[in-house]
Amino acid sequence: MSTARFLSLAPLQIAQALIGFGAIAAFTRLMSAEDFxxxxxxxxxxxxxxxxxxxxxxxxxxxxxxxxxxxxRLADHFATLLxxx
Length: 85
Hints:
Radius of gyration: 19 Å
Number of helices: 3
Oligomer: single chain
Helix content: over 70%
Order of helices and strands: HHH
Strand content: under 5%
């Protein structure tokens, strides 16, 4: 990754991290231990489901993107991805 691209994305990554830490701090203070446990369990299950359902499609999209662009078949490439999702 180029330095310019890294520097352009760094503020977004920092903001995302700060919001995440702030949300955890707020949730732990506003929820009971039981409610936070349910929230953490639901979040973990949803993240695992996303990984199982979509990670393979994301990997395939990146793998075949260059070939689709070289063959000028990006429309077909994206249509296939949408059909899979």
